[in-house]
């Protein structure tokens, strides 16, 4: 009798459970096929730092991963679209098939998933919260890129400008016509709009000597040994004198681990009190500024054209067609 019951149970599993498993598997495959169909067929070479391997990846799927890595899903959809455009444009400008030099850190890759070198990236398969929102931002802008004079732009971005973005030449060396200082008015939601940092005088001296061992600093009257010489249009320190040596604001920022080079220094006993405005280099699109603009009613194209001056938005295929007929190449 027991053996008959076991056989009946096995038969039930075969007749009912197995078809359900097969159906589930087919549904999953169809879902994956649908995702791939939505994203299109364009492939790029990505060095996956987390898995330590080079792989071919769908462009739009990569953009989705960058979007999830770079911007919170709580941000307005229009801000996410603007970020998707910046991420896609930045990616294609590096892609060798579009005239880019590829990822100089990983041989054979167009880009990598190291946020400190290319862009932050989260594997789309691991996105468990608001996946559909990220995907919509990508698909609503599918194939769109930002151009200036018919060339892909350097679509750089940062977290929080602190009220005004920077001219490119005040942070880096070259003057880029579309990377101009603009107002970024709606960043109040950024947790790093204003931050404070206390640093002991002796720790400050140690950090400065790591920059240049010849710097002469004394813990007595330290405030008289530091002088801000120049600030950028966006408010960041471009040059300051430390112990008689002229240093860039970005060098000091990096040595101290500050959020930006827009800072003021106060002094109390053996402590230096740094008040820092903004987060990041300040050039190009401000992510919190973009979200603030979107919350105020701006569309993604308005956001993009605010932070990148004089640019246009076009489709990849239209850009390629124009390059083919006019022998244009993507700028580097």
Brief summary of the model shown:
By secondary structure, this protein is of the alpha+beta class. The protein is 38% helix and 20% strand.
Question: Which characteristics define this entry?
Answer:
alpha+beta; 3-stranded mixed β-sheet; 3-stranded antiparallel β-sheet
Structure description:
The chain is α+β, with helices and mostly antiparallel strands and 332 residues long. It has 2 domains: 43-158 and 282-326, no CATH class; 194-277, no CATH class. Helices cover 38% and strands 20% of the residues. It contains 9 helices and 14 strands. The strands form 5 sheets. A 3-stranded mixed sheet has the order 2-1-3. The chain has a 3-stranded antiparallel sheet with strand order 5-4-14. Strand 1 (43-48) and strand 2 (53-58) form a beta hairpin. Helix 3 packs across helix 8 and helix 5 packs across helix 6.
Unreliably modeled segments: 4-35
Instruction: Give the neighbour order of strands across the main sheet.
Output: 2-1-3
Strand content: 15-25%
Number of helices: 9
Task: Tell me about the largest β-sheet.
Answer: 3 strands, mixed
Count of discrete structural domains? 2
Class computed from helices, strands and strand pairing: alpha+beta
Mean pLDDT: 89
Terminal Cα separation, in Å? Answer: 78 Å
Q: Share of helix among residues?
A: 25-40%
Report the count of strand segments: 14
Task: Round the Cα radius of gyration to an integer and report it.
Answer: 25 Å
Shape: elongated
Order of helices and strands: HEEHHEHEEEEHEEEHEEEHHEH
